[in-house]
From TrEMBL:
<protein>
    <submittedName>
        <fullName>Olfactory marker protein</fullName>
    </submittedName>
</protein>
<dbReference type="InterPro" id="IPR009103">
    <property type="entry name" value="Olfactory_marker"/>
</dbReference>
<dbReference type="Pfam" id="PF06554">
    <property type="entry name" value="Olfactory_mark"/>
</dbReference>
<dbReference type="InterPro" id="IPR036727">
    <property type="entry name" value="Olfactory_marker_sf"/>
</dbReference>
Length: 163
């Protein structure tokens, strides 16, 4: 006999490529190279295999992390690192101290359709997102693509239970 429990509503929030911010950060790297300058101490410059993604929290309160949904349509690896950065219109430079630990690493092996991840870190990171959602309308992520994966190969979202 089925128990009478209220069904929890789930809210899936996609990680969306922020093309404009990624482009701005790439221009910063090019600008430094053209002028022959080095990055200031502590600044995190975007590498070619990295892109900036974001989640727009349509709801901020009463969210409990449920799971990551990450799909790679080709074998490879992605590392999702959260940032504590609240980018301003002048695109304040990202500093390495603004990268959150732990990162969530997801991969798909050559001979498998299944996704694997570093579960403990992904779980801890997801739980932090529930807390950050309470104070943020937008959350930014630095995604590093490895082993031939690129943004077109990735679909990622975070699923929350609404309490």
């Amino acid at each position: 006999m089925a128990e009478d429990r209220p069904q929890q509503l789930q809210l899936e929030m996609p990680l969306v490529l922020d093309e404009s911010l990624t482009k701005q950060m790439r221009l910063r790297v090019e600008s430094l190279k053209l002028r022959g300058e080095k990055r200031p101490d502590g600044e995190k410059l975007l590498r070619p295999a990295e892109a900036v993604y974001r989640i727009d929290f349509s709801q901020q309160q009463r969210l409990q992390f449920e799971r990551w949904t990450v799909v790679l349509d080709t074998p490879g690896k992605v590392t999702i690192t959260g940032t504590s950065q609240n980018w301003t219109p002048d695109l304040t430079n990202l500093m390495t101290r603004q990268l959150l630990d732990p990162a969530a690493i997801f991969w798909r092996k050559e001979d498998s359709e299944a996704m694997d991840c570093n579960e403990a870190d992904a779980q801890e990171f997801g739980e932090r997102l529930s807390d950050l959602a309470k104070i943020r309308k937008v959350m930014y992520f630095l995604i590093t693509f490895g082993e031939g994966v690129e943004p077109a190969n990735l679909k990622a979202s975070v699923v929350f239970n609404q309490l």
